Amino acid sequence: IDAARAYAQWGKHDRAVNALLAAEQVSPAELRVRPATRDLVHQIRSGAPTSVRSDLQALVERVGIAA
After folding, report:
1. What's CA 9's distance to the chain center, in Å?
2. pLDDT confidence of 67, banded at 50, 70, 90?
3. How far is CA 25 from CA 17, 47, 50, 64, in A?
4. What's the farthest any 2 CA atoms get from each other in the chain?
5. Per-residue CA distances from 59 to 26, 36 (Å)
6. For residue 65, what are the contacts with CB-CB under 8 A and spacing of at least 6?
7. Is 25:18 a contact under the CB 8 Å cutoff?
8. Which residue, among 64, 58, 2, 5, has the nearest Cα to 33 in the 3D structure?
9. CA 56 to CA 59: how far, in whole Å?
């Protein structure tokens, strides 16, 4: 999740989503319960292209992140 945040700050939204997808494989519950994840999802959504936002939305729905 920290790597995803770093990529998002760097403007590499596709890599940020990929890092979140990797985190989902290890611990989906961790994504759901960390408040920082919700903030990160909002940050990525606000600056990412549509293709990245759709991948992110699929992740949010699968894991149940309150975004």
Report:
1. 12
2. low
3. 13, 24, 23, 14
4. 26
5. 14, 15
6. 31, 32, 37, 38, 41, 59
7. no
8. 64
9. 5
Beta carbons within 8 Å of 3's beta carbon, 6+ residues apart: 19
Q: How far apart are CA 30 and CA 14, in angstroms?
A: 20
1-38 residue pLDDT tens: 999 999 999 999 999 999 999 999 998 888 888 888 88
50 residue type, one letter:
T
Residue corresponding to tokens 């600056």: 47
Q: Are the C-beta atoms of 3 and 26 separated by less than 8 Å?
A: no
Closest alpha carbon to 42 in 65, 67, 14, 10: 67
